[in-house]
Automatic annotation (TrEMBL):
Listed GO biological process terms: protein processing
Gene3D superfamilies: Metalloenzyme, LuxS/M16 peptidase-like (3.30.830.10)
Domain of life of the organism encoding this protein: Eukaryota
GO cellular component entries: chloroplast stroma
Keywords assigned by UniProt, alphabetized: Chloroplast, Hydrolase, Metal-binding, Metalloprotease, Plastid, Protease, Transit peptide, Zinc
Residue ranges annotated for the Peptidase M16 N-terminal domain, each copy included: 221-354
Function: Cleaves presequences (transit peptides) from chloroplastic protein precursors. Initially recognizes a precursor by binding to the C-terminus of its transit peptide and then removes the transit peptide in a single endoproteolytic step. In a next step, pursues the cleavage of transit peptide to a subfragment form.
Designated name of the protein: Stromal processing peptidase, chloroplastic
The organism of origin for this protein: Cephalotus follicularis
Transmembrane segments: none
Protein's cellular compartments: Plastid, Chloroplast stroma
Chain ranges of the Peptidase M16 C-terminal domain: 373-611, 942-1035, 1095-1176
Amino acid sequence: MATSSSSIVAGVSVPRMPFHYFANNSNNNNNKSRRSRRVSFNRIPILARSDAISTRFQSFNPPTLTRRQPHEVGNAALGFCKKKSYTREQRSSMFAHRHTTFPVSEQSGCISCSLNRRKTFPSVKRCIQRVFLDNSAFHLSEHSLGTTSLKRHVPYATVGPDEPHAANTSWPDGILEKQDVDLSYTELDRTDLKGFLGSELPSHPKLYRGQLKNGLCYLILPNKVPSNRFEAHMEVHAGSIDEEDDEQGIAHMIEHVAFLGSKKREKLLGTGARSNAYTDFHHTVFHIHSPTSTKDSDGDLLPLVLDALNEIAFHPKFLASRVEKERRAILSELQMMNTIEYRVDCQLLQHLHSENKLSRRFPIGLEEQIKKWDADKIRKFHERWYFPANATLYIVGDIDNISKTICYIEDVFGQIGLENEIATAPAPSAFGAMASFLVPRLTVGLAGGLSHDNRSSNNGEQSKLIKKERHAVRPPVMHDWSLSECSGVVKPPQIFHHELLQHFSINMFCKIPVNRVQTYGDLRNVLMKRIFLSALHFRINTRYKSSNPPFTSVELDHSDSGREGCTVTTLTVTAEPKNWQSAIRVAVQEVRRLKEFGVTKGELTRYMDALLKDSEHLAAMIDNVSSVDNLDFVMESDALGHTVMDQRQGHESLVAVAGTVTLEEVNSIGAKVLEFISDFGKSTAPSPAAIVACVPKKFYVDGIGETEFMISSSQITAAIESGLKEPIQAEPELEVPKELISPSQLQELRLQCKPSFISLSPEVIGTRLHDKETGITQLRLSNGIPVNYKISKSEARGGIMRLIVGGGRAAESLESQGAVVVGVRTLSEGGRVGNFSREQVELFCVNHLINCSLESTEEFISMEFRFTLRDNGMRAAFQLLHMVLEHSVWLDDAFDRARQLYLSYYRSIPKSLERSTAHKLMLAMLNGDERFVEPTPKSLQNLTLKSVKDAVMNQFVGNNMEVSIVGDFTEEDIESCILDYLGTVRATRDSQRQKEFSPILFPPSPSGLQFQQVFLKDTDERACAYIAGPAPNRWGFTADGEDLFKSIGDISIADDAETKSGMLLTEGKDVGNDIGKELQRKLRCHPLFFGITMGLLAEIINSRLFTSVRDSLGLTYDVSFELNLFDQLKLGWYVISVTSTPGKVHKAVDACKSVLRGLHSNKIAQRELDRAKRTLLMRHDAEIKSNAYWLGLLAHLQAASVPRKDISCIKDLTSLYEAATIEDIYLAYEQLKVDENSLYSCIGIAGAQAGEESTASIEEDESDAALQGVIPVGRGLSTMTRPTT
C-alpha cells in the first residue's frame, strides 16, 4: 500500500530523487526499463551495498513536484508516488557493467562507487508515471555514499577544441594535479601472480547454508540493520520459462492465488509485517519483512512467518472464488502495464532471444489463456513445480541463534514431500538448481531425454525421479552466443514503429555466457573492464557538449542477467529522429577510439584510486548494510554463481587485485568487449545478437509540423558502417584540480567577510543551541544563513549536506512562467563554476567521492551533497557549495538547451495516457496555474537568460536559505567548514529581493471542470483515472487562509467525545483516563497535528481502497491514495490514482469516491488505526539510522518560511503517533474536501476507438528551435511481473 512519502518525516518537503549535476536527466520513465533488468557491472560482486537506490542517467529529466523518497516512483505534479515494497524485483549480476546514459550536455559522476554499487530494480509494478515534472535537478557528480546507491557516470579525460587544460597554467599553485603518473603497486613475479589469480575468493564468513532431507535449501545471514526485524524469502525455481504453450501466465497466476489466498499471511498483517510476491522467467518469490517479535506476542514471530510461507508455497488453497478474483486482478494488471515502455521492452527481448523461449514467455502471460484456466489447471502446474527440492529459503536479519533458526525451519518444512521424494541428496551443490541454467548445456539423465509432456507424467515413480533431476539440472535455455568463433552472417537491424514513440532509439546487443566470479583473476577482469568501459561515456559527453549534439544520449551497458541467463553488452543511442544517422555515427566513432587507443595512464590512475577509496568506505560501513540489501546481493550472486563476500572481504580482495593491474591488460580486456561494435561486419568479430531500432511513425519538423518518419534496415547498417570510417585520434591527458579554493584564497575571504556565529534569536543565550536528546545543534552565521547539524556514527566516515532555499516555482511571476525550473536546468547544462570547466569540477568530485544534486520544487530549491570524510572529502564538498553559490557561470548555449528540453518534454505529453490525464486534472483543479505543470511553449519562448538567472539567484538570500548536515564528523571539523565556506558567502538579508508569491487558489465551486476525460489513440486498450481535491498543508493552513489550529483548539476532549457519538476513543479502555486526555491535548496543540493525523488517515484509506476496489470488486489491479502536504505554501491536495480497463474505469472511479466519502458511514475501527500506527512507526524505526532520513528531519528547523517547525517535531514524533486517536483522525478527515463540488476527476482512455480529442487540449504553436528528448528503451519490464500487492 502506498502512503504519503512525507507523512512520517516531520516537515520534510524537499524531494530526494537524485539527478546528476551537468547531466541531462529525464524523468521520462521510458528509459528505465532496460536497465532495470540487471545489476550493473559498476559494482564489484562482493560488496553488498548499504543502499538501495539506483538511478541512471537519462538524456532529459524534467523536474518533479512530488516529495520522492528512495524506492518510490509516482506522479510528480499530483504530489503522489507509489512506494516500492522491499522486494528483490530484479536478479542480476553485481558484475554487470552498467554505464548509464551520457547525454551530451551533461555528465555523470563517479566511477569510484560504481564498482560496488547495488542496483535497485524498478519493478514491472510500475507506478503511474510522473506526469507533472516541475523540479529541475542536476548532479555535480554521482557517487555511492551513505545509504544511497546512485547510478553513476564516470567522467574521463576530455578532448577537443575547448580543452580545459589549455588554460590551466594560470591558476594558483597547488590547485591542479596532472594525473599521468604510473601506478606504483607492488608487483608479483609471473609464477606467483598466476597462482594468486587462480586462487579462490573468500566466502562470506557469516553466511550459513544448509539443506533439509526433502531437498529444501536454506540460507541464513545474521544482520543487525534494521534491528529487531528480518527478511524471509521463499524462492521457488519455477517461472514463465517452465510453462507449456497453453500455460502462458500460469506461473504468475499461481503466485497471485497462493499469496493472496493465504490466511496465515493475513494474520501477520496486524504484527507490522509487510509481504509481497513476484514472478520472473525462472523464479517465483514470496517474501515477508517482519519484526522479530511484537508487544502482543509471547515469542518469536519467525515460526509464524515460516508457517505462512509454507502455506503459500506448498499448501495453497485453490478456491474457485480466489481464482476468479485474481483472474480479474491479473487482467487489469496486464492492461495497466501494457504501456509503450513495456511494448518496447518486449520488442527488445523478442529479438535478443529470438532463438529460445525467453522471447515468447513473458511472465504476465496471454490474455486469452488467462481467461480460460480453472482451478484444476492451475493446481497441476503447482504440483509439477512446487516441491521443497525445487525451492530455496533465505532468512536475513536480526537473528542471534542460528541453531534455533534451523530448528524452526526443520519443524515447519522438514516433513513436506518426504513421502514423494527419494532420500538421496538431489545435487552436489545446494544451489546448483539456481545457477545451472546460466551456462546452457545439454540436459542429462532422465529429464534430459523427456519431452515436456512426458516430464509432467503422473506416473508416481517417474515423478519422483523427475523432481530430483529437475532440481539437479534445470531445463537449459539455449542461446546463440556472440562469440568470434561463432561469428556468422550479421542479422539485419529490426525496426519497431509506433505512434506513441517520440524519439529514435537503437540498441546493439552482444550476448555471451556468464563468467562466474569465483577467483581473484575473475575479480581482476571485472575491475579492468569497469575502468575501461567507463571512459566511453565521459568522452562522448565532453567531446560534443559545446555544440548541438546529434544525439540525446549514448549508453554502454555490460551486465550479467540471471533472469536471462547470459551476459549482455548493449550500446543504446537515443536521438531526435532527424539526427539519427549522425547520432549512430558519433557513437560508433567513439567506441572505435576507445577500442583502438585505450584508456590513458591518468584515467587508469584516477579511477583505480577512486574505486579503492569507495571500496574502503563501503568496508567501513559493513555494520550498516540493511538486511534487504544484503539479501538482494546474496540472491543475485547465487543466481549467477558468483562467490559471495562481505564488504570487508570485498575491499581486501579488490586492493589485492588492484596491485596487479596494468594499463596494457586493461586496454586488452576492454577492447574485446567492444569488438562487436568497433569491428562490425568483419569475419573475425563477434556478430551482434540483435540490432533493434524503436522509432516513431511521425516526427516534428520545424516550420512543417508532423511528418512521416521513414527508415530502413539498410540505412541503419550504412550509418553504423559510416561511423567505422570516421577519423579518430588518441585521447590527451587532463589536469584535475586538487582544490576549488586555495588556502590563500580562503584566507582572503576570511579577512573580507569576517565570518562568525551569532545568536539564533533574542530569546536564545549564546550562539549555539544544542539538544542533547536528539544530538542536533543549531547555529546562525553572521551573513544570515542558519545551519543545523547532527553528528552520527551510523554511516562510518560518511556525510550528507542539504541547502534549502525558499521559493521554488511558486515564486514565478505571470510574466516568467517556467523561469525557475528552466533556470535550474540552465545551471545544470552549463556546469561551470568560477574558472573551472565542467569536466574539471566533475573530476574533482570523482577524486573526492562527492555526489551532488540540485532540484527545484513548487516551493523550494534544494542542493544536496553526499561525501566521504576521507581525504578532506567534507571540505571539498563545502568548497563546491561555496563555488556554486558565489561563482556559478550562466551560459547562453546552456539556456538554449534547457529551454529546448522542456519544449520537447511538453510536446511529449499527448503521447502518454497518464501524463495527459494528470495534466488536464491539475489545470482544472488549480485554475490553470502553470506553476504546477510543465511550462508551455509560449511561456518558454518568453524567457531569457537574464530572467531565468534572476528567478533562481534572487531566491539565494541569506535568511531565505538553510543548510543542514548529518555525518560522522567532529564538532571542530564541521564548524570550521561552516565558517570557512558558508560564512564567507556574500549573502544578504535584503528582504526586498524576496517577492510575495502570487496566490495559489482552487477555483470556485462548482467550476464546471469537476469531471473530464482524455482520449488517446493507441493500438491497445488501457485506462487510468485520477481523483483529487483540496487539503490543508502540513502545518494546518488552508488555501482559504484559515488556520485550522484556531478551530480545533477550541474543541475540548469531553465535548469532542459527546459530539462524535459512536466514535470510540479506544476499545476497552477508560475514555476519561487523565493520561490519555493529556496526550490527546498535547497532540492537538502540536504543530505536527495535521502532518501526523493526515499520514495515518492516508494509511487507512489506502487499506480500504485495496480491500474494496481491488480485492472485493475486482475493478483494478492498482489503486492508491496520496497526500501532497506543502510546508511553505498554504495548501495541499490529495490524489487517488487508479488503473483499469475502458469498460471498468468509470465504475472504479465511483468505487474510489465511495471509499473516500464512506468514512462516516463505515466508521474507522481501532484495529485499522493501530495497524496504520505500526506501519508508520516501523518505517520510522527502520530509517532512523539513515543520515538521509535525519537530514529530512532537520529540514526547515530554522526556516523563516516554515515558522511552526521546531525541535519538538523531531523529539516528539513517536509519541505523537502513539497518542493519535480515532477522533483525531476524523478531525483531519473533515479537512479533506470530498464533496462533489470540491472533488475533481479525470479519466484517460486509450485504444483504437478512443475519442479524437487526445491532443487538441495540449498542443500549442510550436517553437522553430530544435528539440531534444528521450524515448522508451529497455527490456526490463517484460522479464517479471509486478509485485502482487
